[in-house]
Amino acid sequence: MSFTLAIVGRPNVGKSTLFNRLVGRRLALVDDQPGVTRDLREGDAKLGPIKFTIIDTAGLEEATDESLQGRMRMLTERAVDMADVCLFMIDARSGVLPADRVFAEILRKKSARVILVANKAEGNAGETGYYDAFSLGLGEPIRLSGEHGEGMIDLQEVLMPISKEFESRQIEPETDVVIEALDDDDDGEEITFSKSRPLQLSVVGRPNAGKSTLINQILGEDRMLTGPEAGITRDSISINHEWDGVPMRLWDTAGMRKKAKVQEKLEKLSVSDGLRAVKFSEVVVILLDAEIPFEQQDLRIADLAEREGRAVVVAVNKWDIENEKQEKLKDIREKFTRLLPQLRGAPLVTISAKTGRGMDRLHAAILQAHKIWNRRISTSALNRWLIDMLDAHPPPAPGGRRIRLRYMTQVKTRPPSFVIMCSHPDLLPTSYSRYLVNGMREDFDMPGTPIRVFMRSQSDKNPYADKKEKKVTKLNKHLEGRYRKSAGRGVKPKK
């Protein structure tokens, strides 16, 4: 990318709407109520031939530094310091408010390049606000409508010389990190993580479990908005970062409450955004609160990650304030084994996102889970294993009909998926499939990762019976034709 542009302004002036238009996708949550955006969200933007990085920020509000709005403002000010260009947006329909003048003065001191935009300027309603914007002393404003796409050509003309100026920057070459694991299409090749192909990692959990604090600890800076209030994070924010030499794409998600408690439209959008992040991930870190681990909602979130087929790591946060550590750990392990049998053997790591304790063990557990998630087993090893499992515990014979399991092979990884050819797959009980899955976890060292086993029908009928029948039919027709020709000449054909 040639440069970084940060969109700033008061709440509800249309920053996220313009952000979504420039990145070409609905990445940021958009709603009529002010203050929807709280964290910084980055995206790859394109406007005509110009490519750049864009940052969506929280609305600027006058508040004390200790309040939530004050912490949001401080985060926005950090984005202004990070960006090469600052796009200051006002609402043309509301006109220039006193808060706009205060923030314009701050931007004039902080940023070398400020582009003034009068948004919602379509029609006559924004005419007065557009001319009022000249009084801010930031040059000629651009008339824009982020929702309808008006004025994008004018914005492109302003950004073009800036883009040419930054094109001379040198781009550092990517360094690849090789992890011993397998991919769907690699069939034995090693996975290479790089900036263009990072490890996709999402952090999910209930509200106030410490997800944003954990992301900040990984990044080594206060990038995500945190605080004692529950439910601060609304968007699913993705950040590219190299953690201990491994390029990763980190997803911070909104806290997921019980479905019955989610009433507001905005919270529903936040939860949907979090579910989408889980689907995009390769490894999901389920973050638990050490004080109240494995509540019903934690179990639902873990079950969701398993059903989506993602590699799972369970992290117990706030371990630094736990007094009876050994007793608590024993209790957590017992509950984990009993309440989540579908994730038996998944890594369980105790951490403190605030102090950084246990982060090295969490990093190792994530890489190990990803490696197992990509594991491929040879067909010969699988079938030798299947014979031993059948000898130890043959499948049942419901109604006197014997079920034969003949052949097994792995059809894909991510997660490991297997097909077993058998007779009467519809009669095979679910308990026997679980017996096979648990055996694979133990014998092929695949703890915790979701394993898929599909039964396909293979009939007891001779596969060559149809070919033989067709051959006999063809011969009979041939002999019948010869007989008719011979009968017409009065000659009895030889048999």
TrEMBL record:
- The residues the record assigns to binding GTP 2 are 205-212, 252-256, 317-320
What does the subunit section of this Swiss-Prot or TrEMBL entry state?
Associates with the 50S ribosomal subunit.
Source organism, top-level taxon: Bacteria
Q: What does this protein do?
A: GTPase that plays an essential role in the late steps of ribosome biogenesis.
Query: What high-level taxonomic lineage is stated for the organism?
Result: Bacteria, Pseudomonadati, Pseudomonadota, Alphaproteobacteria, Rhodobacterales
Q: What is this protein called?
A: GTPase Der
In this protein, which residues make up the domain named EngA-type G? 3-167, 199-374
Family of this protein: Belongs to the TRAFAC class TrmE-Era-EngA-EngB-Septin-like GTPase superfamily. EngA (Der) GTPase family.
- Residues annotated to bind GTP 1: 9-16, 56-60, 119-122
Keyword tags: GTP-binding, Nucleotide-binding, Repeat, Ribosome biogenesis
